Automatic annotation (TrEMBL):
PROSITE patterns: ATPASE_E1_E2 (PS00154). Its EC number is 7.2.2.10. It comes from the Eukaryota. Catalyzes the hydrolysis of ATP coupled with the transport of calcium. This is Calcium-transporting ATPase. It comes from Aegilops tauschii subsp. strangulata (Goatgrass). NCBIfam families: ATPase-IIB_Ca, ATPase_P-type. Keywords: ATP-binding, Calcium, Calcium transport, Calmodulin-binding, Ion transport, Magnesium, Membrane, Metal-binding, Nucleotide-binding, Translocase, Transmembrane, Transmembrane helix, Transport. GO terms for cellular component: plasma membrane. It is a multi-pass membrane protein. Its main location: membrane. One of its GO terms (molecular function) is metal ion binding.
Amino acid sequence: SDYRQSLQFQHLNEEKQNIQVEVLRGGKRFRTSIFDLVVGDVVPLNIGDQVPADGILISGHSLAIDESSMTGESKTVHKDQKAPFLMSGCKVADGYGSMLVTGVGINTEWGQLMANLSEDNGEETPLQVRLNGVATFIGMVGLSVAGVVLGVLAIRYFTGHTKNPDGTVQFRAGTTGLKQGFMGAIRILTIAVTIVVVAVPEGLPLAVTLTLAYSMRKMMLDKALVRRLSSCETMGSATTICSDKTGTLTLNKMTVVEAHFIGTRLDPCDDVRAISSSSAALLIEGIAQNTTGTVFLPEDGGAADVTGSPTEKAILSWGLKIGMDFNDVRSKSSVLHVFPFNSEKKRGGVAVQSDTGVHIHWKGAAELVLSSCKSWLSLDGSVQPMGAQKRNEYKKSIEDMAKSSLRCVAFAYCQCDIEKIPKEDIADWKLPEEDLTLLGIVGIKDPCRPGVRSAVQLCKNAGVKVRMVTGDNIETAKAIALECGILDANGVISEPFVIEGKAFREMSEIARGEIADKITVMGRSSPNDKLLLVQALKRKGHVVAVTGDGTNDAPALHEADIGLAMGMSGTEVAKESSDIIILDDDFTSVVKVVRWGRSVYANIQKFIQFQLTVNVAALVINVIAAVSSGDVPLNAVELLWVNLIMDTLGALALATEPPTDNLMKRQPVGRREPLVTNIMWRNLFVQVEFA
Ligand SMILES: Nc1ncnc2c1ncn2[C@@H]1O[C@H](COP(=O)(O)OP(=O)(O)OP(=O)(O)O)[C@@H](O)[C@H]1O
Ligand SMILES: [Ca+2]
């Protein structure tokens, strides 16, 4: 079974490394496994990706690579035309770009490194460590009991207190021959050994390994890939799950459904006839240039192929609907500098130069971009100052969209004097981000996953609290939380139950600890806020599970007791920081993992109880028999047989017991409950009496 297990591990490892990437090969764009990359492929790189092969950077902006896996140095390295070499296995920390593959497989730096290394999977889980403790303890007890029995028997034998069946005394000092005496001593020793054999629970480690391996395989069928074996059992004692919103609770399939532009609401959202052509051109320039996605038009006609993050895809598709010609727009102006979108600032910007001068385009979280706007573009194409009334109007429309669970993204721009642009060191140029002119706001719909509501309910029944921690607008978060049952419409939906990341961040550590328990929804959180919440919850004694997909979730995933990353939408960085990968990205699968975790824990407890009962009973019987009659009912070999059959078959039977629905009606075990509970000890002794 060890062999099969290691085969399984290998299989899982392959699965783990089998990353899908997008490639451009022979003028065609498609997705493929990183094992199928060949030299000459062009691969786009985005924040959070893993560099899939060795290669050279062809184009890119603000690209920073974390080469710690290769060089061991944790500083990120900037890549540009001067330093274009990329090494396989490193992570993209910031920016974006595309690379030309120059080496794959064993011919990469990483491949050579791996060829010299072999992975070690022989880690022991905390449960195994604890069990080893239990097993050693029982072994010691058995050994000392055996020692006592040995002593008692030996004294009785050598002092002539034992008799043969015919009534003659077995040992008489001086008369009994040396050989006979020796045989007698051997017999006594055998009895002692038998007792030790009975006492040691040989099946325990086997049972645990079996249970974990079996559950791991079964969890695979339930779309959960276990990266760290111990997380199976930890998940069983989870008391709270902090989930991100986008992609886990929602489908991550986004479409623009509302648009407010140039002071009016477009109805339908892609009808731009009312907008002057110069304003529309400005907007389209922003959409086409300020993006990490691409629009790919197949040569043989057909539908345009849009790539990028779901948000980018939604915006680009909408751009196409309002008449954007992606390649044409991009060829009309050149990009001077980029500030890539990140989850900390929640906006991304770009400086472009064209015949009409230099424009800085910004796009990001609506209310944040709005607050740095001083003016707005009106219907006739003139720039109007943003009065209090207009600002409130925009605020209101953001709020309305957010309340109907839409994600809001605002577009703004400003002109920039060409003299103000640094000629040298353009890479260090900080794009102007205040005094912007608002172009408009789009509302993006991302529907709730079907089945999430019942999965959340299942967690509630199981005593596991689900919290939502998202980078999105607080109103959007609230609306989605209500939709999937995380928030109760009749309950309290105000602070501190619903809180903004900023408010939480600014509290003292003690205050954070006090309200952490209450927080159900946290909106506009930065990656660090997620981390702070997990830390606060852990300090409160919670066993915290975190789900996430983005690079912004990585710190929290790492800090959590169990980190669950999303397999499809998740970035490599998130997966690397996780313990379990949810292959189908569905929250329902997360709940299944909880169920499996509990079943592992319960099965092991059952097995311990069974094993201890058998051992204690056998021990007591043997000791009594040995001391009273000088012999044991079963000899060592017979006992070993009984032990073997009971232990292995028992282990097998209990280890493979499937989870029951009852498991999800109990309260979680949490951190402090002992493995062998008092009830178990009670059961144990009552059962021993009957044996
Ligand atoms: N590509 C983008 N360009 C500009 N703004 C964006 C982009 N993607 C998201 N946003 C804005 O940033 C906000 C979300 O930021 P963030 O990446 O921190 O959250 P998320 O990971 O998408 O959400 P969650 O934490 O729920 O998974 C969105 O509300 C949106 O307004
Ligand atoms: Ca996310």
